[in-house]
Amino acid sequence: MKCAKPMGIAAKIARAARLAGVLVALAGCTGPVPAQVPPAAQQEVEAYANDRVHVGAERTDQYVPLLLGKRIAVVTNQTGMIGQTHLVDSLLSIGVDIVKVFAPEHGFRGEASAGEHVADERDQRTSLPLVSLYGKNKKPSPAQLADVDILLFDIQDVGVRFYTYISTLHYVMEAAAEQGKQVLVLDRPNPNGFYVDGPMLDTAFRSFVGMDPVPLVHGLTMGEYARMANGEGWLKGGVQCKLTVIPCTGYDHSTFYELPVKPSPNLPNMAAVYLYPALGLFEGTIVSVGRGTDKPFQCIGFPECTLGDYAFTPLSTPGALNPPYQGITCIGLDLSSYGDFYTRLDPGLNLEWLIGMYKASPDKAKFFNPFFDKLAGNSSLRKAVVEGKSEEDIRASWRKELNAFKDKRKAYLLYP
User: Fold this and answer.
1) So what's the pLDDT on residue 385?
2) Does the global pTM surpass 0.85?
């Protein structure tokens, strides 16, 4: 599969219309496409390549010898699977000395809502101590690493800067460097790794949803990201940790990889994963992204919306406690079929929905909230939308920095 070059809005509309025969264009915003993708269109997108990809965790002969006789802390969650068995269970069964598990946002079993406090506890299945790396304790402390020789990191990422697992990786590497510990990353494919796009992080807006100077869609696997963080001096004080990466086999950056385990409660399928870079920005606005519905990160809307006719009512559910507009009907767009297929035809950060929803908002002064600039990694994207700039103009504003990042990124890639 060869990724298509970014197209203009007119080309996107023409291609979607040709392939699907249906297009809803409202205020410059591309709407839903049919649930059934025409067979001719299906031939234009390569199938998922899971059958030939082997993740780092599966390559036990490459890393288990490095663990034996060492005290291991595993940084992982529900995605750290070797086939049908969790990495922690697999290593315990062969006598690896795991002393504790560090868990990121959403917890070890991946059940906590976004932003929900995750407490330290013991895993009921293994009785191992679970230490949360979310909330006040985002970085392992010297005391927490005192009985550890190696930090074994295995978490499935989705390749988006504001998805906080890369921030956890950053802090783990930083703490390891400061305490003289080794970090061993078991790599996994980046499901959005077939393109690089979006604005770069302005470090004045640095936060846990954007720590390093990368674009919104960075195109790196966890292993590649770790190599770049080390090599570019992103860790505090420019320190470098002792890093080993166990790469995947059968994977490259043109590969479509279907996640076997949902990476967090509100990214339940590939449509949500593909739409997440664009729709995640709406969490800094008045727009609901469908948390508390059966289509989280696959629909957008708000109660007074005049754009689209898809109705949904968010409810408080496990993994989506007290979502925005709980119990209130929202009107907007169902993007689930678009996300599942058409995002792979035309890789790129879609800004049409953001521009369209802003135009449709009745009170534009209240459309954005302060969190938006942290998600965008700058204030310029918000200002450009408010000023009425086109998607093409906005893209042009970040192109120079994006191209410079792509050139720098090449030195750290593990896969073509």
Assistant:
1) 98
2) yes
